[in-house]
Amino acid sequence: MDEAGFRKFIKEARRVPKGLTEKTIRSHVKMVKEFETFLKKRSSKRGFPDAREGDVKSFMAHLAKEDGSTFENMIGLLRYSRFIDNRDVEFSLLNALDGAKVMGDLCEVVKRKHGKRRYDAVLGEFNPPPIGTPPKKMPKATSDFMGRLESGLGEEETREVLLTGVHAGPSTLYTAERKMFLASKDVDEYLRKRRKEFVKLLEGHKRDKTPFFNQMIDEDVLDFVRGNPEIAGGMRRGDKIYCTKIPYMTIEYLKEKDKKLKRYYGCHCLLARESIMSGEKISRNLCYCSAGFEKKPFDVAFGKPLKAEVLKSILWGDTVCRFTIEIPERLRVRRK
Question: Which range scores top for mean pLDDT: 95-109, 130-144, 159-173?
């Protein structure tokens, strides 16, 4: 392991957050060394630069047996994979981690909103699948989870839990959205700025040949996003903002002709996307989790939790995921 180079990479905040603590860095170093030890046991000549997707899956399965397959541990490997530019490992980890904490975080939302007694009645016997659970096993766990929520809380309260947007992370991640809105004369100007910033972000990934989350960006993707303001950052119509989610694997999505495969490439949901191919039934209400993700930046920008609705969903059979987010009444006036 190149610990000195990794520490420099972190200090320069190159594709990692600024200000990581020494405790976090030491934890990352420890996990990288553990992964390399695991690789050497499989083959004495192999190291992190030689690792591939199968190695990542095997290592996560190994850690899961020892309760060591945590989100934080995998983030350490992800950051080191970016440092040495091992795309196989990076994409494998991104696919495993995207949404991996969602069920556990939603369990905490239920406990916080409804109290421990009701939580125990609704979800007390439910164990979220561990990090690294094979994607094909996720729909069954998701169906069980949703069934418990809906039978214990009812549809309205289930949607309220899902709309909290836990997958989007803490509100502090969106302070720039708040600043952007406050610096705008109205909602329409704010949305124009949002669209410009999103396209600029994707252009940067294309220029630098770095992934946007789990996908690479090419000119076809940029043209696709530029041509759809709902994808680029949201479009206002009346008292609502309409948002369409960028596909999960846009390059493959744009090329695919088969509708089922197109939906598979479009769906972001680790909890359920394999059900597109298997045909396993998943509650339609699950997609309010995605609506919560989409509205979180607007919650922060406008300073209050907003109402959101799912208009279309890939899991419902559509080829896109599309949402509306209600603009607060006090902000609906367009300024001249």
Answer: 159-173
- Total residue length of the chain: 336
Whether the per-residue pLDDT at 68 is higher than 70: the answer is: no
Residue 9 and residue 205: Cα distance in Å, rounded? 18
Which residue type sits at 307? K
Asked if residue 82 lies in contact with residue 74, where contact means CB atoms within 8 angstroms, the answer is no
The answer to whether residue 96 scores a pLDDT higher than 90 is no
Long-range contacts of 232-239 (CB under 8 A, 24+ apart): 232/194, 232/195, 232/198, 232/199, 233/191, 233/194, 233/195, 233/196, 233/197, 233/198, 234/191, 234/194, 234/195, 234/298, 234/325, 235/191, 236/187, 236/188, 236/191, 236/327, 239/326, 239/327, 239/329, 239/332
264: left (phi over 0), alpha (psi -120 to 50) or beta: alpha
> Looking at residues 245-255, what average pLDDT do you find?
96
Which residues partner with 215 through β-bridges?
A: 212
Which tokens go with 143?
């169906």
pTM summary value: 0.85
Residue 28: CB partners within 8 Å, gap ≥ 6? 6, 10, 75, 76, 79, 80
Domain extent listing, the chain: 3-97, 102-162, 166-331
Q: How many CA atoms lie within 13 A of 268 on its CB side?
A: 25
Q: Which two tokens mark 211?
A: 């992934």
Higher pLDDT, 251 or 98: 251
Residue 169 burial (CB count, 10 A): 13
Place of tokens 């996908």: 215
DSSP-assigned beta bridge partners for residue 212: 215
Check residue 336 and give its pLDDT: 62
Taking CA atoms, 250 is separated from 35, 115, 267, 285, in Å, by: 31, 41, 10, 25
The answer to whether residues 292 and 269 touch, using CB atoms and an 8 Å cutoff, is no
In what side-by-side order are the strands of the sheet with 240-244? 235-237, 240-244, 322-326, 308-312
